[in-house]
Specification:
Order of helices and strands: HHHHHHHHHHHHHHHHHHHHH
Helix content: 55-70%
Radius of gyration: 24 Å
Shape: globular
Distance between the termini: 52 Å
Number of strands: 0
Strand content: under 5%
Number of helices: 21
């Protein structure tokens, strides 16, 4: 099982590094850059009354990040609940003043409110989001030491209590043949679906890499290895719980709660510190994978009014009002949700990768990506590249019938099998349809051989190289060239050196 997790995320990170290549080289964010070349100028710049309709792609990706923000915040709230319960055991029996049937209770909601990433104290909540991307690395430096230490401690603790690793590692398969094969396929799709948002949003961070390879090798190896290591700990801990409590407990936070039931000052201290580390992990994940990514995509939608920081605030608000506890009420609900949005994101990734690698062969006219001129190569048909939208819809349609079956409708068994491969089917169909449409209906500004322009661009400045003087809030709505914060695209600082 752990080997399966490694290879699943290895496949996912390969798609992610392909998607982020252009941004590692040109230092532009995914939907700022790719929208212009793939979908057309209108979805990226939108200078007309079609604005609301054609910004759906960036809004959709941002929406997924908002939902994940709520899920991660709720998990962090559970960690806080364990921390409070470790100090005051009476926290477990706090009277519930909320209506029955709403999916949560007073105790869990109060724990969520005291989570840093979702505190009802507005100042506390905003402080966790307001820092620019280049300053949050210090949080992750701390996280990289604290969280693995807590995970290993939890791992050892469970094994010691069980006097061994438990029966799960040694027990034989309960399913065989095609049933086992399809179960493995579903596991692969669940792992990729869990990573699908990062596949599309990874360029939002890769563009900050000083050198292209800095964002390549660090992710190519650490993502599959890190997920495999974490899954290994989870599998062994759950196996050990079978010995301790005569049933497998797959939720590590639930297992920590069982430890607390046994009492003892040492147990309470151990649960407190492990829960604190896990809460820190959720905070870091929410900032990096959700609020910053959503902020970046929302900035592309309304750059005059929204920046990354304000977009993060919107993400935090939406993530909490969508009631994330309902998604986590059962594993089936959460798995269905993961598969459903993977269908949409796979089509987006397919178009992005097909356009850059196979249609344009790495060639982009960077200046024209930020131009809405009708004579520009990325204006297409009234600012819309209909080929991209046709391929995107085709990638979704192949999974629609199977998705209906996943939520309880009766559908043909063939559609269920297709849906079991939802990410691969959506990705392959969208990328293939887009490539074929571009062959029969050619697009401008392409190369007949590999001609990546990024290697010729030198001295690419960031908008806030001097972090002590740059403030994102004051920069919203300003012309960065007229204000002197960045150079003109025609100035020598951004010139392209030709051979």
């Amino acid at each position: 099982m752990d080997d399966l997790v490694f290879h699943d995320h290895q496949r996912a990170i390969l798609v992610a590094v392909m998607d982020m290549r252009v941004d590692r080289i040109l230092h532009r964010g995914s939907f700022h850059l790719h929208n212009g070349s793939d979908w057309g100028d209108l979805p990226s710049l939108v200078p007309s009354h079609f604005e609301i309709f054609f910004r759906d792609l960036g809004l959709f990706v941002a929406g997924m990040a908002c939902i994940w923000y709520g899920v991660q915040a709720w998990i962090g709230g559970t960690c806080v609940y364990l921390m409070i319960r470790s100090i005051w055991s009476s926290w477990e029996t706090v009277p519930n003043s909320m209506p029955k049937g709403n999916g949560t209770n007073t105790r869990d909601w109060a724990s969520l409110e005291h989570t840093p990433a979702s505190s009802r104290d507005v100042k506390t909540r905003l402080k966790t989001i307001k820092f620019p991307v280049h300053q949050i690395r210090h949080l992750f430096t701390v996280k990289s030491f604290v969280v693995p230490t807590a995970g290993i401690a939890f791992f050892i603790w469970a094994i010691v209590k069980a006097h061994g690793i438990g029966p799960i590692v040694h027990q034989p398969n309960k399913i065989h043949g095609s049933e086992l094969a399809w179960a493995m396929v579903k596991g692969i799709m669940s792992s990729i679906a869990n990573f699908a948002t990062l596949i599309v949003n990874d360029p939002d961070f890769a563009r900050f890499a000083i050198k292209p390879k800095d964002a390549l090798w660090s992710q190519l190896f650490t993502i599959p290895c890190g997920f495999a290591f974490t899954s290994f700990i989870g599998i062994i801990v759950s196996s050990s719980s079978t010995v301790i409590y005569k049933e497998p407990i797959w939720n590590p936070l639930e297992l920590l709660g069982r430890f607390l039931d046994e009492g003892g000052s040492g147990t309470r201290a151990g649960v407190f510190f492990i829960s604190f580390a896990f809460a820190l992990a959720q905070l870091g994940t929410n900032i990096a994978a959700n609020s910053v990514s959503a902020g970046t995509d929302l900035t592309a939608l309304l750059p005059r009014f929204i920046n990354i920081r304000r977009g993060g605030y919107v993400c935090a608000l939406v993530g909490l009002v969508m009631c994330p506890w309902n998604l986590l009420s059962s594993s089936n609900n959460f798995t269905t949700y993961l598969s459903s949005y993977s269908v949409f994101l796979s089509s987006i990734a397919g178009v992005l990768i097909s356009d850059y690698y196979f249609v344009r062969k790495g060639y982009l006219q960077v200046k024209d990506l930020y131009s809405a001129r009708k004579s520009g190569p990325y204006f297409y048909f009234f600012g819309i590249n209909w080929r991209a939208y046709a391929a995107y819809i085709a990638g979704i349609l192949i999974n629609v019938v199977g998705f209906a079956g996943a939520i309880g409708r009766k559908v043909p068994v063939g559609a269920q099998y297709v849906y079991n491969l939802n990410f691969f089917c959506g990705f392959i169909v969208a990328s293939t349809i887009y490539y074929l449409l571009c062959r029969f209906f050619p697009v401008p500004a392409v190369s007949t051989y590999w001609l990546e322009v990024g290697g010729d661009i030198t001295d690419m400045p960031l908008a806030y190289e001097d972090s002590s003087s740059y403030d994102e809030e004051s920069a919203v709505g300003k012309d960065p060239v007229k204000s002197g914060e960045v150079g003109d695209v025609d100035s020598p600082i951004r010139k392209v050196h030709k051979a």
